[in-house]
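Hi team,

Below is the intake form for NAD(P)/FAD-dependent oxidoreductase from Antarcticibacterium flavum. Please confirm the fields before the structure is written into the shared record.

FORM ID: S-0412
PROTEIN: NAD(P)/FAD-dependent oxidoreductase
ORGANISM: Antarcticibacterium flavum
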Amino acid sequence: MARNNKIVVIGGGLAGLSAAIHLAICGQQVTLFEKEMYPHHKVCGEYLSKEVLPYLKFLGVDLGSSGPVEIDKLFYSTPSGKEIHTRLPLGGIGISRYTLDEILYKKAVSLGIEVKQEEVKEIEFDEGIHKIKTSHSYTEAGIVLGAYGKRDALDRKLHRPFIQKKTGWLAIKAHYQMNGYPRDTVSLHNFKGGYCGLSMTETGAINVCYLATYSSFKDHKDPEVFKEKVLRKNRHLAQFFSKATSLFEKDLTIAQISFDRKALIEDHILMLGDSAALIHPLCGNGMAMAIHSAKLASEAVMEYLVTPGGSRENLEHRYEAEWNRSFKSRINTGRMLQKVLLNPALAEISQNTVQLFPGLLPHIIKRTHGIPVE
Ligand SMILES: Cc1cc2nc3c(=O)[nH]c(=O)nc-3n(C[C@H](O)[C@H](O)[C@H](O)COP(=O)(O)OP(=O)(O)OC[C@H]3O[C@@H](n4cnc5c(N)ncnc54)[C@H](O)[C@@H]3O)c2cc1C
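The structure came back. Fields below:
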């Protein structure tokens, strides 16, 4: 029986769109399912590490014309307001997900990728074929890339262990208008129970995105009250909020954010981006990892397709090996950093240590980032 080489991508965020574009450039026919309409805002810090810019160029994706902001400085403050300023070794750009995802989507459409704006409800693997169901369609494919983000009903269908556990995290984001915010700086301000990132986007708006534990949020429940009672205890955040005006009618919120380990392959689906693993957001590296994982998966798929008699087992092994080589160590560094920063005593000690040894911080940042992906 002839091998089914049809490729389906589930999820049209950064990982899914990048993989679909890569495979289309290599001459493959790809169908991508995305449940939301483009463009839309997403909860994200919107700082994109420059490491993936060469790869985006390879994909034919030009971000320059959207006017992203160049960012090469980090301003970090502890809950008590102590400051650290450093240069970011590689730097990044500030661009909203509203714009970034739409640019990739338009590129995908221009390459003839079939984008179905449908939610995948079920997926089953049987005798070498993936059977994909939405409310409107049924599709069969030989290869499926799972790029549906942090958490979805599909994870429950696939019996992924992380979905069974309640997690302790939620995240909130909005864009603000404020005059005088430094364009070249991403700020990370610790508060009791979380941290808040600030950086400018291509529109000149400041993206404000914070991650907080439920235990710190549950007494206040309302984001506005939480902002008043908890975030503003950090004097840098108090200063920002006293001068800034929200551009959103309502903050965007996501809950049940899990940093647990996930399997990279589930029922022969290659998992990409956040569906494979979520690095702690304070590393500012999840978007770059999502895009980079698309490259690793696409290369493994292409090798499988062009190798006569190429086996699925080899495809899966190659993807897992490349993913671990590229990301495992930075995910572990991210876990360690998050533990330190969320412990107020440790955060103060590490702040003092970094002030004594200023070369330490760029070194730690490098450990959570990769080198440019050519
Ligand atoms: C608070 C916070 C701040 C962050 N800040 C930063 C930062 O500053 N810099 C950085 O690099 N990273 C940051 N990240 C991480 C970054 O947002 C993610 O790593 C990145 O969005 C992952 O991209 P993705 O393509 O894997 O997933 P997503 O961008 O989430 O895309 C998944 C897509 O799949 C679609 N989908 C889901 N289920 C289905 C389904 N069943 N059928 C069809 N479609 C489906 C969704 O609608 C979505 O469009 C942050 C994360 C958090 C939580």
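SUMMARY LINE: The longest strand covers residues 83-94.

Thanks, M.
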